[in-house]
Amino acid sequence: MVHDDSAATPDADGAGRGGKRRAGQGRVQRPRTRFRRVDGILLLDKPTGMSSNQALQRVRHLFCAEKGGHTGALDPLATGLLPICFGEATKIAGSLLGASKAYDTVARLGQVTDTDDAEGVVLREREVGAYPIDRLDAALRGLTGNIQQRPPIYSALKRGGEPLYAKARRGELVEVGAREVQVRVFELQAADDLLDQGRPLLRLHVECGSGTYVRSLVRDLGEALGCGAHVAELRRLWVEPFREPRMWTIEQLEALASRDPQSLHACLLPLEAGLVGWPRIDLTDEAAARFSQGQRLNHVPGPAGAVAAFSASGTVLGLAQLSREGVLAPQRLFNWPTGGGLPHG
To answer: pTM, whole model, 2 decimals?
Structure first.
């Protein structure tokens, strides 16, 4: 999801509960944010209770960034890694959307909600039985591998150009078909002495491919156990290629901005950090100049498929497709100012 915003978002200045204000009365004129070019990737630790877009806009205003987008939305209930791309880095956002991800989640057994998480309305309550570890492990194994999964009706998947959650909120009947997803790891971390303390909570770890809904996994686990379940907590740990991310909270960024706004740029990763694992093609100065003008290059050695093209000085020039015949076709070019792909502030 990429947003290209070149103007400041208006601040809410409603009259509160006491009625309308007259023009010019009691209104504090705030200076408009002066946006500028910023390039790079921020690994944000999104707080709970905030949508991904709200988090993006908070951070974009802190950096005064002209252009920004997040990759792979997190539910408001969820916390954890939300990669935010600024400037030229938004051009690789699509590749990050399709990356593998890992989560820790807490499943609340015995309750089924309309959203499959704790923010929804409880639809059914069932008794939580005695579940020995081997039964829990068997249910988890049944939801591991390449499986058919039905996404939640309250999801951002679109039908007819409109998100499903919009239809569900209007009370429309939403039918969602199953689709294949890949769940590499779905395992029990702790059962919180489920039977001894009467706390129907399971702590679970998930590693999965693109398009997998943890809410659906937990819902289906509850059905496999016969008691129902929903997500009570969810935290995203990593997104490829950021396996051991150094994440920044909004509070940390605000503290840096209050002391020295320029220091924020030390929190950014270069665009190249999002291309770790991509096959790399290094071009001569002559070939790099032609590639940067959008020209195809012939007789380029390298693996066929999607590649990242670099100049002789090590600056990434763009994404390309390399054919089996050695033809390098530019797909997305990066527009760097003089000096290469460094963040600007």
So the answer is: 0.83
CA dist 97 → 82, 101, 183, 231 (Å): 11, 10, 16, 22
Catalytic residue among 45, 75, 116, 220: 75
- CATH 3.90.170.10 describes domain 101-239: no
75 is known as an active-site residue: yes
Pairing label, strands 101-109, 201-208: antiparallel
Closest CA to 41 of 11, 65, 20: 65
Average pLDDT over residues 228-254: 97
Q: Strands 79-86 and 229-239, how do they pair?
A: parallel
Amino acid identity, position 339: G
- Give pLDDT tens digits for 45-86: 999 999 999 999 999 999 999 999 999 889 899 999 999 999
pLDDT in tens, 273-295: 999 989 999 999 999 999 999 99
| Top-tier CATH class for 2-13+32-98+242-272 | alpha beta
Question: What is 210-234 written as a DSSP string?
Answer: TT--HHHHHHHHHHHHTS-EEEEEE
pLDDT at position 338, please?
62
| Domain 279-333: CATH class, spelled out | mainly beta
The helix (H) or strand (E) run that includes residue 290 is helix 285-292
The pairing of strands 79-86 and 67-70 is antiparallel
Q: What tokens does 5 get?
A: 């915003």
Q: 250-259 and 52-63 are packed helices; what angle lies between their axes, rounded to 10 degrees?
A: 10
One DSSP character per residue, 74-85 reads: --TT-EEEEEEE
> What is the domain partition of the chain in residue ranges?
2-13+32-98+242-272, 101-239, 279-333
Beta-strand runs (E) in 47-142: 67-70, 79-86, 101-109, 111-113, 122-125
Closest CA to 253 of 266, 244, 242, 238: 266
Residue in the block written with tokens 């591991």: 144
